[in-house]
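Lab notes, practical 5.
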Amino acid sequence: MEDNKDAPTALVRVGSLLSDPFFRKAFAANPAAALAAQGIAQNSLPVAVLEVLADLSHEELRALSRVKNALELEHASTHERLEMV
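Output from the prediction step:
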């Protein structure tokens, strides 16, 4: 497997874009076009991740986005609690 130094940045961008319902709808309809419209090259994402995301429906992408947001909130809350100690 080829090492892709752009993968972490591309994954973060896609993760953020999943919060946008218009991106989710476009991605569910045509992943390649949705990524290209955002300036993200398909080859900047790990193949396995792209394959899984491409198989998800708009509703499943929304659920994934909600889980990501909840995890980020939990991480932020944990970090804030640690800073208070």
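Observations recorded by the TA: The CA atoms of residues 33 and 72 lie 28 Å apart. The chain has one domain: 7-84.
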